[in-house]
Design brief:
Length: 230
Amino acid sequence: MAHPTQLGFQDAASPVMEELLHFHDHALMIVFLISTLVLYIIIAMVSTKLTNKYILDSQEIEIVWTILPAVILVLIALPSLRILYLMDEINDPHLTIKAMGHQWYWSYEYTDYEDLGFDSYMIPTQDLTAGQFRLLETDHRMVVPMESPIRVLVSAEDVLHSWAVPSLGVKMDAVPGRLNQTAFIASRPGVFYGQCSEICGANHSFMPIVVEAVPLEHFESWSSLMLEDA
């Protein structure tokens, strides 16, 4: 999860987020090189009284500064499109979960099970135990098996919401009357935090998302206990 004074992204917990981090570094390096070149040219133009006649009127330079930006855009666009299609790919999910946004909590329904669903409310600050995070902890976590393709169907019951977990590289709008889908694979066990990312009313800041990735045998034990309680 994010920590104070953090400047970069959260540590990746899914293959897609790793790809996004690599693309971010790739694009940032290109932007850095362009910025350095432009800054050097500005400083050179301001700090010298000399004039180069080939810069004032040169067909070759105009060709270069027309083609070069196009090549740079292609170098950015190709990996971006690749990741875009990867994020849209949903192949044979092992588990499907329906996430419904409400004002102001989430409800989860495990559609592969006959009667497995629950509401997930934020734990109030006064009820937190030692080690829990304010505004991020919920009374029920969305538990998923690690290293398994998970499909999440996202919708809302009242207003626009957005189901987002940064470390998993997932962000999907929850629109009333519309069923959107996204997918992720948790590559390691852990607890991953997110929040509603669409302003949805007075308590928009108080509907966190907690995804807990566990080994498959632990998930099976958890689902059995939940079904017994139901």
